[in-house]
Amino acid sequence: YPSGNLAIILVRDTAQLICIVQEDKPSNAKVQAVFNSRGRGTCCYPNGAVWININIQGGQYSDQAGSRVRKWTWPNSLMSSGPHTALSPIFISLNQHVGVRILGQDKIIVSFLAMGQQAKFNVGTKVQVSDGGCWPAPAPLGQEELLLLAFRVRMLWLLDRLRSCLNFPSNKQRDKIKAPAYLSTLTSKILRLCTSFDVSSELCHSIRAIINS
């Protein structure tokens, strides 16, 4: 943002890409939208209520009270029952600088505009439910991939800490600032991966040491 606060984060988590939009705040910034490359996404109102929710079958648009305003299904959805409601183009402004335009499953655009400069990210993807109605089991990650993920999470922690040091030079102020929720979530996910893929205790110890160093 023009304020220097982080607006949009793009990160790879295991086999997917994640796009995160944060509000314009120097600390404890709330997540306003999250999209991943597996066809899921959520946008929230400033009060935290879910605005738009998207999955591999379709999506839903709600008002701030939580009531459904609109619902649609993607053309390639394999829903077994219920009418297939077509999507009408949607555009929302998450804040003064970030907007989301939904034109189709593979055309979901996150746009950023500030000081005459614009950036666009297509976070849409073509995904549909398999005939069995479930995802295939993920391939196990190798040692190098898990270590790389650990280093990426650690770098995000360090960048957040650096930003806190720049914005709040006083040690007393910095100690009161909580880390963004997405960092805790990423940390928990990579630690769960160690258990899911049954890696060695030595590797788990190394990953914990990297993240917590």
TrEMBL record:
Coiled coil: none annotated. Residues 1-176 form the FAM194 C-terminal domain. It holds the Pfam family FAM194. This is ERIP6 protein. It comes from Upupa epops (Eurasian hoopoe). The lineage of its organism: Eukaryota, Metazoa, Chordata, Craniata, Vertebrata.
